[in-house]
Design a protein that fits this description.
With 111 residues, the chain is α/β, with parallel strands linked by helices. It has four helices and five strands; from the N terminus they run βαβαβαββα. Helix 2 links the parallel strand 2 and strand 3.
């Protein structure tokens, strides 16, 4: 897991796919989500890079991306945010950010 801050964030965006958990040590929901996030990071490490950004003492990046809730999970693809989810979401929701579910195929019925 990559540890990010305002100084090294721009370098991490060079990853083709990067998912970042914006968090703080003092925030209860972050402490609940952290082990779930680590579990998904381990199972999906071949599909994306995983990082945690501690907002304490690093105000520039969270402000730039409009982080208002903790934790906030943000998927960057080629350096551009593509999916954002806030709150202590379940592992399935984090997993779906990295591996979207297959679209449901509609079939036409003959009348």
């Amino acid at each position: 897991m990559i540890q990010l801050n305002d100084k090294n964030f721009h370098r991490a965006l060079k990853q083709p796919r990067l998912i970042v958990m914006f968090s703080a040590a003092w925030a209860g929901p972050c402490n609940l989500a952290r082990p779930v996030y680590a579990e998904v990071a381990e199972s999906c490490k071949e599909r994306a890079a995983f990082a945690e950004f501690d907002i304490d003492d690093n105000p520039i990046t969270p402000e730039k991306y409009g982080i208002r809730a903790l934790p906030t999970f943000m998927l960057f693809e080629s350096g551009v945010p593509s999916v954002v989810k806030a709150g202590a979401i379940p592992s399935e929701a984090i997993h779906q950010m990295v591996v979207p579910p297959e679209p449901v195929k509609k079939t036409r019925r003959k009348v």
